[in-house]
Amino acid sequence: MKKYLVFTIILFLFGKVYAEDIIYSEWSSEYPTNVSKLIIKKEYRYLWYKEEISDIKYLREEEATDRIIDYNDMILKKSENTIIRPESYPSRELHMGNKYYRFKSTDIDSIKIVFNNLNVYELEIFIDEVKYDYLVNDYDFLSDSDYDSYFNISDTLNIKFSDKVDANKINVKIYCESDIDNNIRISFKSYIYDVYYNDFNIDNEVLSITASDMNTKFTQLIPVYRYTDKLYKTYKIVKEYTVDYYNEMDGYIKDESTKKAFYRYIKNKYIIVDYYGRKVTDENYCLKNKCTIKILSEHIEENPKTGDFVHYSFIVLFITIVIISLLLYIFYKKIVSNKSSFVESL
């Protein structure tokens, strides 16, 4: 019994159990070559993103065609009074009332000229003594600087300015054939309203007309508009993507369209065994039969380091002394026991 106890102590002290760790290569999106398919591990990864709100604007619902609308966040925007009828929208509340409106000389934005069967050579408009380049469809000849050819006109011409103009700086010159029985009507307008107007007899081949030659109608009873718009908070969603691919990412959203395969393989020494533990040399056998990868031990040290050897020798020496002391003690106890038995027998 004591011998078995000593053997157990020695086995416990000298025995060593190896737990094999599987060593893998780094993950790569390139499929490994020159290695067995049985030791390749495949994993799908994705790009992940967070949704960030950007480009916040308060707009009418009709304007937010390509944006996300937050209907719980809305403000009302009221316009100033205007003589120009605003566009109508489902989200716009339009108000109209007739009021006396007073125009100013600086409100002029167009000129209207009504011709009645008149032969016209040229039409020039000066603003602050600078010739204004205008364009009227079908009447390009009126501004071609050709004073020798005329065209008969029975029409109304509307010449729109690019910006509002002070009527006191406007000078209109009409080159035409004199016709005492004919006349033209000219008005300087603001929007659709005649602010300056008059009829002129064609008693000269060149008519030069300014605001001082015209009647005025500064105060007029006209429709005045105002509106209230419902403006909703609108925004766009920007996706902030990760740079690398991951199979899981806390707090992020997976983009399924970015699915990409990654691979790694076992780098340990191994053998392939079948269901019965027999070594397999032909991998094609595993196409129809169950196979297992068995990792081979790599813990044999043929040339241990000096430090490790000294440490190991010290342990062996210590254990040897303990064992010898234990054996001597047992031997001593046995001699004492035999001696006592001999004395008692006498």
Would you kindly provide a written description of the structure presented here, covering whatever features stand out?
By secondary structure, the chain is of the alpha+beta class. The protein contains 2 helices and 20 strands. The longest helix is centred in the C-terminal third of the chain and has 40 residues, at 306-345. Residues 1-19 and 300-310 have low confidence and may be disordered.
Instruction: Outline the low-pLDDT stretches.
Output: 1-19, 300-310
Shape: rod-shaped
**How large a portion of the residues is in β-strands, by DSSP E?**
35-45%
Helix content, binned percent: 10-25%
* Number of beta strands: 20
For the report, how would you describe the main beta sheet?
Answer: 5 strands, antiparallel
Count of helical regions: 2
Quaternary state of the chains: single chain
Question: SSE string, helix = H, strand = E?
Answer: HEEEEEEEEEEEEEEEEEEEEH
List the helices and strands and how they pair.
Layout lengths: L1 H13 L25 E6 L2 E12 L8 E11 L13 E11 L5 E7 L3 E10 L2 E2 L19 E3 L2 E10 L4 E7 L2 E12 L2 E10 L3 E5 L4 E2 L2 E23 L11 E2 L5 E6 L4 E5 L4 E2 L10 E5 L10 H40 L1
Antiparallel strand pairs: 1-17, 2-15, 2-16, 3-15, 4-15, 5-9, 5-11, 6-7, 6-8, 6-10, 10-13, 11-12, 12-14, 18-19, 18-20
